[in-house]
Design brief:
This protein is mainly alpha-helical. Helix content is about 65%, strand content about 5%.
């Protein structure tokens, strides 16, 4: 390839891209650049360099591409060439994860384009500016820049610039949860694909619509779109096709609790994230590892991500995705200190969507993760549920309301020990808790009374077992009481006496438990006889276990509260109208 001239090598690069070979394209482009440099041809150097970012993978270290771009940028003599090269240099650094370094080149490109009064150059510069203004604190600026790009591109015929404008408007619409604007930009992408006949535009149009359909929970249609996107993606020279397809597949696996697919995607995300050192990919890997029943490795990745502290995570395009993933894993595994620290950093962004890059996949809203970090704050859950209802995200609303996850996967729910240290409960993994063992025994013998002492076994010694309710159980009781007060207010406002009566009965039962467990001034009482110690130990262990389940699956926790009775004799009474086949 080194014997060919710059022009022939550029043609080979174009052919490689048309054949869907981004790696071959990049090799040919670098060879063309080297040949142009040897020939002293600054124009050919610029032509090769300007195509570099099209072969660059999102988030992956750019290697020497920015250095080659900078060489062409320094050698450029004409303002238009310098403007385009500054934008390309900004784009390369931004795609490589260094938006700060990219910023000055993007601003220079915009200034040059404005001075030259060239709409095509300005559109290119604005796209570069957007890539360098993708942090959570830049949303207002990003919305403004996207609107400017849309206004400029509206009078251009260049397909790539129109595509960029639609993708940016789509991304900011999702960030703001503006579902009407989302629909408009999805339709604009469809039209652009049809008018241009471009397979690359069609890939973006179909993959982004697949994301929207997944968010709305229409799995059959999503499957058809994902299959189509994969087929088209295989024919275009887009370097991030594989990443997009893995993200869509992982989203679908999460919604269906497909443990096989979750395990496969967890392995793929983890391997790529570790090999390339990409925090956002590792954050997603941690969530997938947890969901696929690998809590130990999920926790390792979570701790690695925050090893230097939450504050050192760059506030860039991946910030919300990384921190919210940390909350998801840490809260599910009982690492509440990590979850609380992470929640404090994202609380200012409540009301925002959490996205993977340019609206590749939807990861909920910040409010849901704040609720996971602090389940007693019911308003976070309600804010999230209301946002999901507004945009039609049915699966997400049902998840945060506790009406989905394990109980809607059919009548089969997993509840079994997973190795020596954890449990798989529904679609989640929990740490080993004594109460989970007790629940497991009750679930395996439905309709049978089991003495608390028999359940406790050797776990209760003859000595004083201490306080009837520990801090975790008390917190669970009080959090539920606070939630009931909120729900009672809502039921009263709606004029729903049936719900008010049911909630009132539950509140009285919980208050009775607290009165029995606490003494004067709220001091926790201590137990006496062996049978009483067993009864109390089992009850508080089961209460703590259900409280832990509630943090990840409120619906399953509610069902267990409705069907599991504790006392001197404990019992699981299945509800005929809510049959469940337990995998134990």
């Amino acid at each position: 390839m080194t014997d060919a001239g710059p022009s022939e090598l550029l043609q080979r690069a174009a052919a490689a891209r048309a054949a869907g070979d981004p790696d071959g394209m990049l090799v040919a482009l670098i060879a063309a650049f080297d040949a142009a440099r040897a020939a002293g041809d600054a124009s050919a150097m610029a032509a090769a360099a300007l195509a570099f970012p099209t072969g660059q993978r999102f988030g992956v270290h750019p290697g020497r591409l920015p250095a080659l771009l900078h060489e062409a940028y320094v050698a450029a003599s004409s303002p238009p060439a310098r403007c385009r090269l500054a934008a390309a240099l900004a784009r390369s650094w931004a795609l490589g994860g260094d938006a700060l370094r990219a910023g000055r080149f993007a601003r220079e490109s915009e200034q040059l384009a404005s001075e030259l009064d060239d709409p095509q150059l300005l559109a290119d510069a604005l796209d570069a500016r957007l890539l360098t203004s993708w942090g959570p604190d830049d949303l207002t600026e990003r919305v403004s820049l996207a609107a400017r790009l849309d206004a400029v591109a509206a009078h251009l015929t260049d397909v790539e610039q129109r595509l960029a404008a639609h993708l940016w408007r789509l991304t900011t619409a999702w960030e703001c949860l503006d579902i009407v604007a989302v629909q408009r930009q999805l339709r604009a992408l469809d039209i652009l694909a049809a008018e241009s006949g471009s397979a690359r535009v069609e890939f973006f149009a179909i993959s982004r619509r697949a994301m929207h359909v997944l968010t709305s929970g229409d799995l059959p249609r999503a499957d058809a779109l994902i299959e189509r996107a994969g087929a088209i993606g295989a024919t275009v020279g887009e370097p991030d096709v594989e990443a997009v397809m893995h993200s869509l597949a992982a989203d679908r696996a999460m919604q269906t609790a497909d443990l096989v697919a979750l395990g496969e995607e967890a392995a793929a995300f983890d391997a790529f994230g570790m090999a390339e050192g990409i925090p956002s990919v590792l954050a997603e890997a941690a969530v997938l590892l947890l969901a696929s029943g690998q809590p130990d490795l999920a926790l390792v990745r979570c701790r690695q991500l925050v090893a230097g502290g939450i504050d050192v995570i760059p506030r860039d395009v991946d910030f919300l995705l990384i921190v919210c993933s940390v909350i998801d894993v840490a809260a599910a595994l009982g690492e509440m200190a990590i979850a609380a620290d992470a929640a404090a950093t994202v609380e200012p962004y409540a009301g925002r969507a959490v996205l993977n890059a340019g609206a590749v996949t939807f990861h909920g809203v910040v409010d849901e993760y704040l609720f996971r970090a602090e389940p007693s704050v019911v308003r976070w859950r309600d804010n999230a549920a209301n946002a999901y209802r507004r945009i039609g995200a049915v699966w997400w609303e049902q998840r945060v309301r506790g009406r989905r996850s394990a109980l809607v996967m059919g009548s089969t729910v997993t509840f079994r020990p997973d190795g020596a240290t954890g449990w798989t409960v529904g679609g989640f993994t929990l740490p080993d808790l004594k109460g989970l063992h007790y629940l497991h025994e009750l679930l395996s013998r439905p309709g049978v009374d089991i003495d608390a002492a028999a359940l406790a076994g050797a776990g209760v010694d003859a000595a004083d077992t201490g306080e009837i309710l520990d801090t975790t159980a008390l917190a669970a009781y009080r959090a539920r009481l606070a939630e009931i007060e909120h729900l009672l207010d809502d039921a009263d406002t709606r004029g729903d006496p049936t719900t008010s009566a049911r909630l009132g009965d539950e509140r009285e039962a919980l208050l009775a438990e607290l009165r029995a467990a606490t003494g004067i001034g709220g001091r926790r009482r201590r137990t006496g006889s062996t049978d009483e110690r067993a009864r109390v130990a089992v009850r508080k262990a089961i209460a703590a276990a259900i409280a832990r389940i509630e943090a990840v699956d409120p619906g399953l926790a509610r069902m267990l509260r409705d069907t599991v009775r504790t006392g001197g004799a404990c019992r699981y009474d299945p509800q005929p109208d809510r049959p469940v086949d337990w995998i134990l």
